[in-house]
Amino acid sequence: MGNGRTAVVTGAGSGLGREISRALLGAGYRVALAGRRADALADTAAGDTKALPVPTDVADPDSVAALFEAVRAEWGRLDLLVNNAGVSVGGTVDELSFADWKRAVDTNLTGMFLCAQQAVRLMKAQDPRGGRIVNNGSISAHAPRPASVAYTATKHAVTGLTKSISLDGRAWNVACGQIDIGNAATEMTLKMADGIPQADGSVKAEPTFDARHVADAVLYMAGLPLDANVQFLTVTATAMPYIGRG
Length: 246
Known about the structure:
By secondary structure, the protein is α/β, with parallel strands linked by helices. It has a single domain, classed as Rossmann fold. It has six helices and eleven strands. Strands 3-2-1-4-5-6-11 form a seven-stranded parallel beta sheet, sandwiched between helices. Strands 7-10 form a two-stranded parallel ribbon. α3 packs parallel to α4. The longest helix has 28 residues, at 98-125. The termini are far apart. Belongs to the short-chain dehydrogenases/reductases (SDR) family. It holds the Pfam family adh_short.
């Protein structure tokens, strides 16, 4: 049985996007699964009839517009956007290529803007009006890792995007919050078990935590009435070297 609510999750083909999508489907949401690879989206859907896989390039305005038009045509409204798609691009400021910088900005920042823009337009026009946007930031929105200039800069920018959407959306009953995550266990964090560079120049293994807890946090944020909002939520592995002097 569905709960009558609809959602879009970007980056739904793997990692946190897959975990969040399946949690929303399990909670009764109808979920549009957005991502580059149709086969990966089909794997996330796993035959659930409430899932709508929509291959999407979040950095392409036309592709994003087509995603939200598919949602409007299929369900007539949107209650939740989980702006999750992102890429991790390593490199120091003096060595990072322009192509890698642009790829990070196009996906991590411009992609979130384009999806939020289309979501707010749909949420403003529907009846009843309003909805919620949850942006996936990172603890890199607070402090960088070594050699992560593009990723860190875009995640800091996501915080500004979140605040601006929150302010712009008030008149239309659109709430916007951000979840900042540190070391959820996904394909992206597998290398942490072997050790990653630290601020003091050492290389150390770091702990991770079950990504399901991220999905549970998103479900909590999404489940609030629109007159309440989790503006910022940070969830990390308890023993990761984040709080401290590095």
